[in-house]
Amino acid sequence: MTLDRAVLAFAGLMTLLSVALTVWVHPLWMWFTVFIGLNMLQSALTGLCPAAWVFRKLGVDEGKAF
Fold first, then answer.
1. What is the pLDDT along the chain (66 residues), one digit of tens a residue?
2. pTM of this prediction?
3. What region holds the Inner membrane protein YgaP-like transmembrane domain (predicted)?
4. Structural domain spans, the chain
5. Euclidean distance between CA atoms 10 and 36, whole angstroms
6. 25 vs 57: CA distance, rounded Å
């Protein structure tokens, strides 16, 4: 798996997790979903992605997503 795909998969997983927590645990978990969305937006605008830094440290190979 390449870095791009790992970041996309992680973002999707975290979004689904936050929605599930909102539905089944407590409505205030919606703020976790908001945080994820804002983080994705800032990453798209600035090119800085904390998840990508972590995946690089873990040794995930860089590549093109599509």
1. 899 999 999 999 999 999 999 999 999 999 999 999 999 999 999 989 999 999 999 999 987 765
2. 0.85
3. 2-55
4. 3-57
5. 11
6. 32
